[in-house]
Structure formats: C-alpha cells, structure tokens
Design brief:
By secondary structure, this protein is an alpha+beta fold. It has helices spanning about 5-15, 60-80, 100-115, 180-190, 205-215, 230, 235-245, 255-265, and strands spanning about 30-35, 40-50, 80-90, 120-125, 135-145, 160-165, 195-200, 215-220, 250-255, 270-280, 285, 295.
C-alpha cells in the first residue's frame, strides 16, 4: 500500500536519471549520497510548518528550533552516518521580532552542540501578509566506517527491530526527542544492518516503505511492540504505537544470527526490541496477542492526504 507522499516521491525518482558513479544514492532514502572524488557526502532537507509539525500557540520557539535541527540529525541516524554541518532557512511571520529569532536560534544551537553538528549558514525571509511560520534545515553528513544503510536492503527471514519506546509523541516527545545517531553508528559497528530508517511517520508507514523498496513483506507481533507510557494514556495504545509517528526511533532489519548477537551484547540505555520478521509475501501483517493475524493498514502521517 502506497500513500500519496510515497507515490509522488516514486514519480520524482522515475523522472530523474543520475549516474550511480556520481550519485550512489538518489531519491527515496532518508538522505541522498554525492560522490566527490574518492570521498562522498550525504544530504537531506526537512521543512517544518506551524500548524503541522508544531503549534506555536503552545510550543516555544526554542523547542521549534531544537526539533527542526534534531529531525534532520535523525535522518543522519536513519542511515548510520555522521552529521557534518547544517544550514537553516526560515520564513518569518510579519510580526516576528529580533528577540524571537534569537530564541529560535538557541534551540537550533542546543541540538547543534549536543550532536556536534555545526550551523554554518542559512537564509531569512519575512512574509508581508498573514502566513504561517516555516523553518527548513538542510544537512550534510558523511559515511561512518560502514556504508550508509538504505531502506531497500531488507531480506526474507530478517528480524525487524526498533530502538526505544513507541507512540504518544504528541504528549511532548515530538518536541524534545533524542535522534539516535550515536546508537545507529554503534549498531552498524556491531552487526550488519540490512535496512534502516527513522520512525518519523509511524511503524505502519515506515515499515511499509522498507518493505516496498526491498520488495518483501513483514509480520510483526503486537505483544512485542515496545509501547511507551504516553501511548498507554491513549484510547488505543497499540494504534498509537503503530501510527502516531514522530518517535524518531530507529527501525531496522538484520539477520537472525546478528539479531541474537545484538540482543545479547547491546548494553546501551536505549533498548533494542525485536518486533517481527521479514517475509517473502508482499503482505504487511500483524499477529495479535490472541494469535489472530491481521493485515496492517497504513495510517501513519501523510502530507498529501486529502
């Protein structure tokens, strides 16, 4: 099942013919890769909108600045790459003041310093009419010792794993999350990751993306999904864990052997949990606690949904 955002992204990719020698990774992953001589860099860009990704009637500008920067750092984590530098562009409301710009900057710099990703420039524009605040971050990263981990490498029989706890991000995590860049690099050093991405739109959307690009299916187990305390506060905690999005945890696949090794040796404070298996069929299913197997509907966030 493909949502509107994924459908148009696939169309963009079909319209773009790039030499793999110069662009090893193009449209469709969390970052694109550009080769420069014997080296390469990766690039991503994320645009955040007031009223969609945050609400300035309740969130502070410092929180918004942090989230914008951290979301792009999370894209680096999604491919187990090392953040290098970022530029930030903003479209300010017509009432925006210099002091407010400084508040926003403090949030950007909080993430910048915490994850060793310098802010090296950007752009500022101001609306002349009533229009919402917009912030965009473009970020560069470099490969770690491993090759960048893509979405398209999942293999039949792989274990499906996640970091952290899922669901209920609207209760505050969506503004103050920890991008798992350090954990991603350690994972890639310990085992061979076949595919990975960060959970920005929810398991139902993001695992579907891995399956679609890898041409495989998935079976996850409801009672294995690590549901957060905030998700437990909702009417349907499992639905929240599957669909809320903005957890910014890692979703990845690896062989059964490597999964056993990882679970045994992982000693970080952020937990790793096996939640399912990659299957040969293209079906995307979930096994409920009573043993019933159901098809999963893709309900995660879709920017192009009507």
């Amino acid at each position: 099942m493909t949502n509107g955002e994924d459908k148009i992204t696939s169309w963009f990719a079909s319209q773009c013919s790039l030499p793999v020698s110069d662009f090893p990774i193009g449209i469709g992953d969390d970052m694109a890769q550009i080769r420069i001589g014997d080296e390469s860099v990766l690039i991503t860009t994320d645009i955040l909108l007031d009223g969609v990704h945050f609400d300035l009637s309740t969130a502070t500008l410092e929180q918004v600045g942090y989230k914008a920067m951290a979301a792009s750092i999370s894209d680096c984590a999604a491919m187990a790459t090392i953040p290098l530098a970022a530029v930030v562009s903003v479209a300010l409301t017509k009432e925006f003041s210099e002091d407010q710009i400084k508040q926003l900057h403090s949030g950007v710099m909080r993430a910048s310093k915490k994850y060793s990703c310098p802010l090296v420039g950007g752009d500022i524009a101001k609306w002349k009419k009533d229009s919402p605040f917009v912030i965009n971050v473009a970020m560069l990263s470099k490969p770690a010792k491993n090759k960048p981990v893509r979405r398209s490498g999942a293999k039949v029989g792989d274990c499906i794993c996640v970091t952290g706890m899922l669901g209920g991000s609207i209760f505050g995590k969506h503004l103050d999350f920890e991008p798992r860049v350090n954990e991603a690099i350690k994972l890639a050093e310990m085992v061979e990751l076949h595919s990975m991405m960060d959970l920005s739109d929810g398991i139902s959307s993001d695992l579907n993306r891995i399956c679609t690009q890898s041409k495989v299916g998935a079976l996850i187990e409801a009672d294995k999904i690590p549901i957060s305390g905030d998700a437990q506060r909702t009417e349907n905690p499992l639905e929240a864990a599957l669909n809320d999005g903005e957890d910014f945890e890692l979703l990845f696949t690896l062989s059964q052997k490597d999964c056993e090794k990882l679970i045994e040796q992982w000693n970080e404070s952020v937990p790793v949990t096996k939640i399912g298996t990659i299957t040969e069929q293209s079906d995307f299913q979930i096994k409920m606690p009573d043993g019933q197997v159901k098809y999963i509907q893709v309900k995660g966030f879709d920017h192009l949904a009507k």
